[in-house]
Amino acid sequence: MLPVVLILMAAMLIGVFYLRNKTDEANRVYAAEAAITPKPTIAPPAIYAKPTDALLRSGSVGVEVQQLQTKLKELGFYTGEVDGQFGGGTKTAVVHFQEQHGLNPDGMAGAETLAAIYSAGAKHMVVTPRPALPASGQDLPMLVNRTSSIPEGYTPRDLVALKDVVPRDMLILKDPDVRANRQAVEALVKMIRAAQADGQQVWQVSEGYRTPARQQELFNAQVQQLIKDEQLSEESARKAAEKTVALPGTSEHHTGLAFDLTVPGYFFGDTPQAQWLENHCFEHGFILRYTANKEEITGFLPEPWHVRYVGEAHARFMEEHNLALEEYLALYRQ
User: Fold this and answer.
1) Residue 303 falls in the annotated catalytic set
2) Residue 227 structural domain
3) Of 230, 245, 260, which residue constitutes the final position of a domain?
4) Which of 20, 57, 97, 235 could anchor a disulfide with 108, C-beta 3.0 to 4.6 Å?
5) What does the alpha-carbon distance between residue 321 and residue 334 come to, in Å, rounded to a whole number?
6) Which residues have C-beta within 8 Å of that of residue 122, sequence separation ≥ 6?
7) How far is it, in rounded angstroms, from Cα 84 to Cα 65?
8) In the structure, what pLDDT confidence band is assigned to residue 306 with cuts at 50, 70 and 90?
9) Residue that terminates a domain, selected from 128, 144, 165
């Protein structure tokens, strides 16, 4: 009986020793974590940056934003309240400063922009006189967007099948029966010839004229895809779909003057063809309709593949003055 008691007592002593060691080890771990873990705070973190080494953009707040607004106000770019909040007015002021100083007009005050703003060479705001518009306001490009739909019963004029007009093997036609306005197709042929002369050989027309009925099919398909992939409600999916697919009646493809140009097997925005279009399409009467710096105006996310024929005079003017079609037509209304 005595050996059994001794064995039990020994087991208890070993257990106590083990638990004490584990407790001591845990205390050491907790002490180490407490030394490197910041104390919690109930205040939300402030978004700010120093003028010399970081970034100020929409949503930033703090003293650094006040300093930025004060400096931009001194230079004549900012007319709002110096409140330390980087909102729309501050972003617009930054964009104007960047444009006037040859910087990328992204509306964000990064290291390069901040250095220029606070430098001795920072220039005061230059009020650009209203540009002289092309000779006549007649024959203006047709505006089709989210708020300006095509008239009921509208049919574009002079539609032709590209396969009957485009030289053989010049373009890949995703849809062999794709159609578009004859004048726009003829301008497209000239533009592609120029691009191919510059070494950009492969081009595909993925879309041309599109009926409202076809647009409805595409919109419905996008809604269903979002419901399936993103688990969205139908209402949420419709709102999300409107960012990338126009509602029937509001697509530029209804005019017969718009093309989606692609390169098979590649995301078009990453191709040299996309860069060529950005640099040269205006020379042939086309505009890139949806660009990154005009999203709030056009209502669409950037589409580097979507070109719209407006005629050379209009296209050159919009390119020279960095205008979206909405802005350009507003000049005539004013």
Assistant:
1) yes
2) 212-245
3) 245
4) 57
5) 16
6) 71, 75, 97, 101, 116
7) 5
8) very high
9) 128
